[in-house]
Design brief:
The protein is α+β, with helices and mostly antiparallel strands. The chain is about 45% helix and about 20% strand. The chain has three domains: about 15-155, Jelly Rolls; about 155-200; about 205-270, Homeodomain-like (Arc Repressor Mutant, subunit A, Orthogonal Bundle). The chain has helices spanning about 90-95, 115-130, 135-150, 160-170, 180-185, 190-200, 205-220, 225-235, 240-250, 255-265; strands at about 15-25, 25-30, 35-40, 45-50, 50-55, 60-65, 70-75, 80-85, 100, 105-110. The chain has a six-stranded antiparallel sheet with strand order 1-8-3-6-10-9, sandwiched between helices. Strands 2-7-4-5 form a four-stranded antiparallel sheet, with no helix packed on it. A hairpin with a 2-residue loop joins strand 9 (about 100) and strand 10 (about 105-110). The longest helix has 19 residues, at about 135-150. The radius of gyration is 24 Å and the shape is elongated.
Length: about 270
């Protein structure tokens, strides 16, 4: 168990400042002549670079280029570990992560990983300043960057983070426009459509419809929900249109699916 770190603190050293932030607001990073490393502990937020944006999520590590002007926008309570530091020549060589938007590279780690406690260790060193703390801090940051580079080939690659993000947005309750999805994924509408189709085999709209119909199918298994309620829940006010789209996806109407399910439930255990 790691001790909870104080919020908003930083060192006075010119080549390294770091901190633990819990934010509900927006702020900017204006051409800081140091590289940045950010780990998202929890919550969501947007990072803007020029006219491009990228949505972060829990257990994502981001590398910010020196002198990159970045604007941060909190979507919900956003907890971050952050580090601004002067890169060594070795670190510059291993920090060649592909960018998700100009000036920002991102890697998604699984929930269980050792990067978070490693970075917590860096923050603790800055607080306690034991013997050789300076060398140890830079060694740990070096290891985090190196592991991030290695992780690119063994987990979710950076170029696929956009598609994973788009799938999460399309699976939400809010029906977002395709232009908004493309902006949140840091791509043009045309590139977003093309990339999504290559990675998933379907268009973003078809993917969202499939997600909604699978949700409707689960709800049909609960007799407490009426067909009208299910249609409204997935954003379709017309029951006839819902029935048409459900049949298109699963080959039967919602009523027939529910009747078939009831027959299977009432069948005897010996029935073939």
């Amino acid at each position: 168990m790691y001790q909870k770190l104080p919020v908003f603190y930083k060192s006075t050293r010119p080549d390294l400042c770091c901190g633990h932030t819990v934010s509900h607001t927006a702020w900017s990073r204006k051409y800081l002549p140091l590289h940045g490393l950010i780990y998202v502990v929890r919550g969501r937020g947007l990072m803007h670079s020029g006219d491009r944006m990228f949505e972060t999520r829990k257990d994502m590590m981001l590398l910010l280029k020196a002198n990159a002007k970045i604007r941060f926008e909190t979507l919900e309570e956003w907890e971050l570990y952050w580090f601004h530091f002067l890169m060594t020549p070795r670190q510059e060589q291993i920090a060649d992560w592909p960018e998700v938007i100009p000036g920002i590279a991102a890697i998604q780690f699984p929930e269980e990983n050792f990067i978070r406690p490693m970075l917590e260790g860096v923050l603790q060193l800055d607080l306690t300043r034991p013997q050789y703390w300076n060398e140890t801090m830079f060694s740990l940051l070096d290891s985090a960057i190196q592991y991030g580079r290695t992780h690119l080939s063994s987990a979710i690659e950076t170029r696929d983070v956009h598609i994973l993000q788009a799938k999460e947005l399309l699976s939400g309750t809010k029906d977002r426009s395709m232009d908004e999805l493309a902006r949140r994924c840091g791509m043009s509408r045309t590139r977003f459509f093309a990339k999504f189709k290559v990675k998933t085999g379907m268009s973003p709209r078809s993917y969202r419809e499939l997600v909604m119909m699978k949700k409707a199918r689960r709800m049909l298994e609960d007799p407490d929900f009426s067909i009208t309620e299910i249609a409204c829940d997935i954003g379709m006010k017309s029951c006839s249109y819902f029935s048409t789209r459900f049949r298109h996806v699963f080959g039967v109407s919602p009523r027939q699916y529910r009747r078939d399910l009831e027959l299977r439930r009432n069948a005897s255990p010996d029935a073939v």
